[in-house]
Design brief:
The chain is α+β, with helices and mostly antiparallel strands. The chain is built from 4 helices and 3 strands. It has a 3-stranded antiparallel β-sheet with strand order 1-2-3, with helices on one face.
């Protein structure tokens, strides 16, 4: 992951943590104003858990950063795979091999049992420079 993407992820995480803290503080204030001691107890417990998990350097937690890196890499894979040519092979009940190809950009599709027809279609439709 490049440094800019990593910093964006860190900044988003820090903003998310700030939003959680602000929401929790607001809920805690409302519970105190309503004299709801049980809810205040629960919210204070949540606040302690978040402080223990995130601490003061939440965005620098190695496990958290590794989780963000993993999520970012997976997202990049999913997004880049969306425009790649898809080819599947299967065998029908009679033992005939079939090919299914789809170009997600153009929407063109082919279903054939011929290897040559598949290769011809790919050359004509996918590598049409």
């Amino acid at each position: 992951m490049n440094a800019a993407a990593e910093m964006t992820g860190v900044n988003l995480l820090a903003r998310h943590q700030q939003n959680i803290a602000a929401s929790l503080a607001h809920r805690l204030e409302a519970a105190r104003a309503a004299n709801n001691t049980h809810l205040v107890e629960l919210l204070e417990q949540e606040q302690r858990q978040l402080a223990a998990e995130y601490g003061s350097g939440a965005h620098s937690s190695p496990a958290l950063l590794e989780g963000l890196r993993h999520a970012w890499e997976h997202l990049k894979e999913v997004l880049t795979a969306c425009d790649e040519l898809r080819v599947r092979q299967w065998v029908d009940g009679n033992g005939i091999i079939w090919w299914y190809a789809q170009d997600p950009i153009t929407g063109d599709r082919l279903c054939t049992h011929s290897d040559w027809e598949l290769m011809d279609w790919i050359e004509k439709h996918h590598w049409n420079d």
